[in-house]
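pls design
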């Protein structure tokens, strides 16, 4: 089979598999239980209901990737069609995919091209995400719909929130970003709006929220993320090599606030104190691994890792109301160790024109609108 045909076959197969896995994941979220190890079996009808999640979610993802693709082709940069990454287990919660990516098959020659390719995806995807959320919030089912998901709530009637959340452990709420808050506050009918612990069961709302979440992740202005391409185009390599590492360190610092506290250590017994100290040391080593590629000298990375730990302890002590989001640490580890926080230099360093600068500011604004400091709140 010729190389191009084999590649297209792989890409199509990955898309179809991802369509199936995201549909299965959507079915699980809609019905409130996993595929395996459940006394409630999924049939064909339940599977088809999952398309209400997979089609809008993959729709945003696909528009995002083809935004990159078509702009790259317009600039005569050789790129691949999207590769989708399916991921579903049926024994733990998932969204059915790890996203998608395109391969740039040659060096991008200018800041302008990097900027255009980078910004096209998230802006295009953001527009579709807004449409998904508008549809979801303007087509909410009646409040009684929750009883088809949780028939055990029926005994309490529509007053169920006063009874079923007395012990809220295990429930998942979506942390508001500015866009999601706007739709909940000004678009949705308050009489139809589901409780915050139940929004994950509403496929268009959940798909739209995830689209905003991944848009924000992609727009983080670090490395070769879309936001990194945009920031590199805006300020050039010299300034980027200062700003990106600074933002990375700030992100690490925020994410780990509250993991360890001075008060916690003061309450430990002797045995607990030393095990806690060991845990803190391992955490500092983890931060060192994240930061190792920021500096050529490993001693600088070690000193900065210890500085981050100290800053987190002090913030948690003097401002106990501020807590980070440790889940971000996994993403930052991948970013620091594998994707990189710096940006490859381009032969053509000519600055952007005024129109592109405005677009770049719009993209940074979209990041602010989509970003949530606590995206998923599990109680």
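designed seq:
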């Amino acid at each position: 089979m010729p190389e191009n045909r084999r590649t297209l076959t792989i890409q199509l197969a990955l898309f179809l598999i991802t369509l199936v896995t995201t549909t299965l994941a959507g079915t699980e979220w809609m019905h409130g239980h996993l595929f395996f190890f459940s006394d409630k079996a999924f049939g064909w009808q339940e599977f088809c209901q999952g398309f209400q999640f997979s089609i809008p979610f993959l729709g945003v993802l696909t528009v995002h990737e083809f935004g990159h693709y078509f702009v790259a082709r317009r600039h005569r940069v050789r790129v691949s069609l999207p590769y989708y990454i399916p991921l579903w287990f049926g024994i733990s919660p998932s969204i059915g995919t790890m996203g998608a990516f395109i391969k740039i098959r040659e060096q991008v020659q200018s800041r302008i091209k990097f900027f255009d390719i980078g910004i096209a995806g998230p802006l295009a995807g953001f527009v579709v995400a807004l449409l998904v959320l508008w549809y979801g919030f303007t087509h909410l089912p009646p409040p009684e719909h929750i009883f088809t998901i949780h028939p055990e709530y029926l005994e309490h009637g529509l007053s169920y929130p006063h009874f079923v959340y007395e012990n809220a452990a295990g429930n998942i709420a979506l942390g508001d970003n500015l866009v999601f808050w706007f739709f909940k506050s000004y678009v949705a009918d308050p009489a139809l709006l589901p409780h915050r612990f139940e929004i994950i069961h509403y496929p268009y709302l959940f798909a739209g929220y995830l689209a905003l979440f991944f848009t924000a992740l992609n727009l983080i202005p670090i490395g070769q993320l879309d936001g990194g391409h945009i920031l590199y185009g805006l300020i050039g390599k010299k300034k980027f090599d200062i700003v990106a590492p600074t933002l990375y360190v700030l992100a690490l610092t925020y994410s780990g606030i509250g993991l360890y506290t001075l008060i916690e250590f003061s309450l430990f017994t002797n045995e607990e104190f030393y095990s806690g100290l060991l845990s803190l040391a391992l955490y500092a080593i983890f931060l060192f691994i994240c930061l190792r590629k920021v500096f050529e000298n490993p001693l600088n990375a070690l000193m900065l890792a210890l500085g981050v730990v100290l800053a987190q302890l002090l913030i948690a002590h003097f401002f106990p109301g501020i807590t980070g989001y440790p889940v971000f640490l996994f993403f930052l580890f991948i970013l620091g160790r594998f994707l990189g926080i710096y940006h490859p230099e381009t032969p053509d360093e000519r600055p952007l024109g005024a129109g592109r600068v405005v677009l770049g500011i719009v993209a940074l604004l979209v990041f602010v609108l989509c970003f949530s400091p606590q995206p998923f709140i599990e109680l």
